[in-house]
């Protein structure tokens, strides 16, 4: 049967011409792949029923699965055979635009009358909304239906024919480029082009050019370690190879165990960012360098310990004075400059270093166990103390960085305790985001994009957590923090303000009840005024401090990663004064120019998974749009781009009608139906190659891309930036 189907497919493709043109090898591979997938889905009867089809298609709304199933089941047997599946998929994957449009029309024509009436179109659009996880009122659904129906029904006959639908779709050329069922990708064979080995990006010229400061610094760092290792080995050649290796690693540990501390001197790094040194050293990548040095400490310590253990084993066998366990766990051999404690402190140090590295892994920090990372990392105090006892020369390396570290800590304690800071207002936002409004002390000065460490004793007395300031420096009275619930502390914070006041009081003792009554002055479901004590340490600088020194800045926020850019965008509002002509109603925006402000263009890109997340900063974005409402699109200083990843793309058959309706209604109402903004929310994920190509063609000056969000997306965006020669900065703290 498969060979017969293959002949049919080849004949159909020859009739379709270049649009369906495929080589015989590609056809064979596609046929084998579809057959394999079919066999994995179909039951023992070698037929796919409706339930199996729904599972395989992975659709959220059963309407589309049922409609696709009915059209695939050409013989009406309530099951799909391999023959029927191949014929239908050949049309969808290799067919012409007309063939695909005919299939789409049949999906929309629920009663099979040969035309689409308003009720059928409304049913389809309602299913499209559910499939794209978009929630709109019934009235808005009616508006969408009427907008699309009135546009498509050109002869005002009260129904849409195939020719009218085809003519309407021609107004959306981007949809016609790749009209298919994206959810059926399980039936597409893997692309051979992707399997071909490509040059690793670490070996490309663009990568070395865009990461020159980091790579030069790492080369210098590596050479310094090699130099110290060799010198230490040569000085201790009398002790044999194992002793030489142990001493070489020990000297490298002297350097790295102090340098790892220097990389976390946040106040010093914040100050250095304002100097010319930021153009020489990779100050914006201090977290990455801190991690690299941490792994270097782990490797050097393991080799150092291993070399000593093997040397002790050799000594115990040769002279027989002490057993191996005595060398390792007692002070009898007298090794070390403080009462022979070098071996014991070395074992403890090795355990602590391994514990710190394991507990600081991405898996621990990103899986809601930040407290494990936080408390285990505090053992650095014991590590330094033991290192001073363990090694006679470590204090010489430690004294200057240690003094700087101590001063920075004392300054941090003084700053955090100076003045009375209180959380005066709390808003609970969608997706478990807590918006804290803190009374701003008069001495607190920061730059857009800076972050602080906050301690809230009623949540956890001794825990400090970093969050980006989401308000603008020009906002004198308050500080804003937006906290996404992703771990134990952040969840406790959200739950503390979510529970009703009466419940919070009933769960506490009388003294706590009186304190809460005194602090809580007004309470509503998602908003309350309060007077809760907190401590703030900072501010600390980030790469985003360079935004106003850029010419063309591209700000990319993924989810709650918008927070540093919220501060920047608000600062832009304050810096763009709106002017009005006294003789007429004309108004315009005048950008305040200062020594720091070199911006000529800003592209702001916000990517969210769901619709409700846009509510976090919709009022801010609305104000930004209003300030630029009178300017032409091509002349705007700030351009916004919104993406909703849960929504299906425009070229998906399950979303094409909805996206057309949303476009038409947005043009009519001059407002996006999803967010309420003038900017149209785009479905799916950005095509970064097209986005950056457009940015490159604008020629507004040197492009700097600033990103805050998931590390996985950062890697992809960074690779694209390297391709276009853009500078890339990632928010890290």
From TrEMBL:
GO molecular function list: calcium ion binding; superoxide-generating NAD(P)H oxidase activity
Keywords on record: Calcium, FAD, Flavoprotein, Membrane, Metal-binding, NADP, Oxidoreductase, Transmembrane, Transmembrane helix
Subcellular location, record wording: Membrane
Gene Ontology CC: NADPH oxidase complex
Tagged with keyword Membrane: yes
One Gene Ontology biological process: defense response
Protein name in UniProt: NADPH oxidase, EF-hand calcium binding domain 5
InterPro entries, per the entry: EF-hand-dom_pair, EF_Hand_1_Ca_BS, EF_hand_dom, FAD-bd_8, FAD-bd_FR_type, Fe3_Rdtase_TM_dom, Fe_red_NAD-bd_6, FNR_nucleotide-bd
Occurrences of domain EF-hand (ranges): 60-95, 96-131, 140-175
Chain ranges of the FAD-binding FR-type domain: 416-546
Listed transmembrane segments: 215-234, 292-313, 334-358, 378-399
Membrane topology: Multi-pass membrane protein
Gene3D superfamilies: EF-hand, Nucleotide-binding domain of ferredoxin-NADP reductase (FNR) module, Translation factors
SMART domains (alphabetical): EFh
Xref: Pfam families: EF-hand_7, FAD_binding_8, Ferric_reduct, NAD_binding_6
């Amino acid at each position: 049967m498969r060979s017969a189907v293959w002949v049919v497919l080849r004949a159909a493709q020859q009739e379709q011409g270049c649009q369906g043109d495929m080589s015989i090898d590609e056809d064979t591979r596609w046929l084998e792949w579809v057959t394999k997938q079919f066999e994995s889905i179909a039951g023992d009867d070698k037929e796919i029923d409706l339930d199996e089809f729904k599972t395989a298609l992975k659709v959220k709304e059963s309407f589309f699965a049922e409609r696709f199933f009915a059209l695939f089941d050409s013989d009406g047997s309530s099951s799909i055979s391999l023959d029927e599946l191949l014929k239908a998929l050949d049309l969808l994957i290799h067919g012409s635009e007309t063939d695909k449009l005919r299939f789409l029309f049949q999906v929309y024509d629920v009663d099979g009358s040969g035309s689409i009436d308003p009720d059928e179109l409304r049913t389809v659009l309602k299913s499209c909304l559910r499939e794209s996880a978009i929630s709109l009122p019934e009235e808005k659904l009616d508006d969408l239906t009427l907008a699309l129906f009135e546009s498509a029904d050109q002869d005002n006959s009260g129904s849409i024919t195939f020719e009218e639908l085809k003519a309407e779709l021609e107004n959306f050329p981007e949809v016609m480029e790749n009209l298919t069922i994206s959810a059926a990708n399980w039936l597409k064979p893997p692309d051979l082009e992707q399997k071909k080995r490509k040059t690793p990006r670490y070996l490309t010229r663009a990568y070395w050019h865009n990461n020159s400061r980091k790579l030069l610094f790492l080369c210098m760092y590596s050479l310094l370690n090699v130099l110290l290792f060799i010198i230490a080995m040569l000085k201790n050649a009398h002790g044999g190879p194992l002793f030489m290796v142990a001493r070489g690693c020990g000297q490298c540990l002297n350097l790295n165990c102090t340098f790892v501390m220097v990389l976390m001197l946040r106040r010093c790094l914040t100050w250095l960012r304002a100097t010319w040194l930021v153009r020489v050293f990779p100050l914006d990548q201090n977290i990455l360098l801190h991690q690299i040095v941490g792994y270097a400490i782990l490797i050097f310590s393991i080799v150092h310990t291993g070399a000593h253990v093997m040397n002790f084993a050799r000594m115990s066998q040769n002279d027989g004075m002490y057993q191996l366990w005595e060398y390792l766990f007692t002070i009898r051999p007298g090794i070390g400059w403080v009462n022979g404690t070098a071996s014991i402190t070395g074992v403890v140090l090795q355990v602590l270093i391994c514990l710190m590295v394991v507990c600081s892994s991405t898996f621990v920090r990103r899986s809601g166990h930040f407290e494990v990372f936080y408390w285990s990392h505090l053992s650095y105090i014991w590590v330094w103390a033991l290192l001073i006892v363990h090694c006679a020369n470590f204090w010489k390396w430690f004294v200057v960085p240690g003094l700087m570290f101590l001063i920075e800590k004392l300054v941090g304690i003084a700053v955090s305790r100076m003045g009375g800071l209180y959380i005066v207002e709390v808003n609970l936002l969608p997706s478990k985001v807590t918006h804290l409004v803190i009374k701003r002390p008069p001495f607190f000065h920061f730059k857009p994009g800076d972050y602080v460490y906050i301690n809230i004793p009623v949540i956890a007395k001794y825990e400090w957590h970093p969050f980006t300031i989401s308000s603008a420096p020009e906002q004198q009275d308050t500080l804003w923090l937006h906290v996404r619930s992703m771990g134990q502390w952040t969840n406790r914070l959200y739950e503390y303000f979510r529970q009703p006041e009466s419940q919070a009081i009933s769960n506490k003792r009388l003294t706590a009840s009186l304190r809460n009554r005194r602090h809580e002055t007004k309470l509503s479901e998602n908003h309350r005024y309060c007077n809760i004590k907190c401590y703030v340490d900072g501010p600390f600088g980030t790469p985003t401090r360079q935004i106003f020194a850029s010419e063309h800045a591209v700000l990319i926020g993924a989810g709650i990663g918008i927070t540093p850019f919220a501060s920047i965008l608000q600062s832009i509002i304050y810096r763009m004064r709106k002017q009005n002509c006294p003789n007429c109603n004309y108004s315009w925006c005048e950008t305040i120019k200062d020594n720091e402000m070199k911006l000529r263009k800003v592209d702001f890109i916000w990517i969210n998974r769901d619709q409700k997340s846009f509510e976090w900063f919709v009022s801010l974005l609305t104000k930004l749009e209003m300030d630029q409402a009178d300017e032409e699109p091509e002349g705007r200083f700030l351009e916004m781009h919104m993406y909703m990843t849960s929504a299906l793309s425009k070229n998906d058959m399950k979303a094409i009608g909805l996206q057309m309706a949303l476009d038409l209604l947005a043009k009519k109402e001059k407002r996006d139906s999803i967010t309420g903004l003038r900017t149209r929310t785009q479905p799916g994920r950005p095509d970064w190659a097209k986005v950056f190509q457009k940015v490159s063609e604008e020629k507004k000056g040197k492009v700097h891309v600033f990103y805050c969000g998931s590390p996985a997306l950062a890697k992809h965006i960074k690779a694209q930036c390297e391709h276009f020669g853009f500078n890339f900065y990632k928010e890290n703290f």
